[in-house]
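RECORD TYPE: inverse folding
INPUT: structure tokens
STRUCTURE:
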């Protein structure tokens, strides 16, 4: 577990950004449906929480880079570098989402433009997630160079976004929408995470370089992943059984904790190709 803690800023950036994008997609789905004015005002108020979490994620990424100037320098290779593409698409998503919220909270957003804006912003968010996942899809890092890497990132978008979106939107007393579908999708997301965990755990013993064994990088992989799945499982039960705002908040905390554990182990598995790789 300790092996991945040196990348703590990136751990928080990826989990928070992915969860925020997932939640924004839930908000978009709800807002594209017809809402009464009171419900819409509530939705726009709580959307601020999503933006705050996204902002905290970007602060964490800047801490990793060392200074805001390095973030700007990273944009020099947009189109040629996945890292540059990630930063650019993330910045565009943040700006679009922030401007939408500001105009909407001031009640100045025309209905038709608002729906188009939400759709465009959501598409940019998905592009951001694609770029983020493929930053780590590196042939020189055998533990990351598999379909499990983008899948793990996308599943954080699912479980983190669904938990956060549900916790923020369900307490809306004026709502005309139904979110029962969130519970089922969340459970499916947890099941897929469990399958990925088992598959990855079984395959680690087959990955090595001339100087490193992948399994030796994270000796506590099994107990920490069991803890992660337990946290996600408890969160799934809380989301399914309760509509109490405090309980739903606890489900979000448990989800974030589980995904932070998973992401820490992910960074702990970093190893480069040596003189040979077996697999």
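DESIGNED SEQUENCE:
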């Amino acid at each position: 577990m300790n092996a991945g803690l040196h990348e703590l800023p990136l751990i928080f950036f990826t989990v928070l950004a992915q969860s925020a994008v997932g939640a924004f997609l839930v908000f978009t789905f709800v807002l594209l449906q017809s809402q009464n004015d009171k419900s819409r005002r509530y939705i726009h108020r709580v959307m601020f929480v999503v933006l705050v979490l996204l902002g905290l994620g970007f602060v964490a990424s800047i801490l990793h880079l060392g200074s805001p100037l390095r973030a700007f320098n990273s944009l020099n290779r947009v189109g040629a570098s996945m890292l540059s593409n990630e930063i650019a698409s993330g910045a565009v998503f943040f700006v679009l989402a922030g401007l939408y919220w500001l105009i909407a909270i001031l009640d100045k957003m025309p209905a038709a433009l608002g729906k188009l804006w939400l759709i465009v912003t959501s598409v940019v968010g998905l592009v951001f997630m694609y770029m983020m996942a493929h930053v780590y899809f590196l042939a020189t890092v055998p533990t990351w160079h598999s379909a499990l890497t983008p899948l793990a990132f996308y599943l954080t978008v699912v479980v983190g976004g669904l938990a956060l979106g549900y916790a923020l939107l369900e307490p809306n007393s004026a709502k005309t929408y139904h979110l029962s579908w969130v519970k089922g999708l969340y459970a499916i997301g947890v099941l897929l995470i469990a399958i990925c965990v088992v598959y990855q755990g079984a395959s680690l013993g087959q990955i090595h370089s001339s100087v490193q064994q992948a399994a030796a990088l994270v000796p506590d992989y099994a107990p920490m992943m069991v803890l992660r799945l337990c946290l996600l499982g408890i969160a799934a039960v809380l989301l399914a059984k309760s509509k109490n705002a405090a309980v739903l908040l606890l489900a979000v905390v448990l989800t974030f904790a589980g995904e932070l554990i998973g992401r820490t182990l992910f960074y702990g598995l970093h190893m480069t190709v040596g003189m040979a790789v077996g697999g």
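NOTES: Residues 275-279 have pLDDT under 50 and may be disordered.
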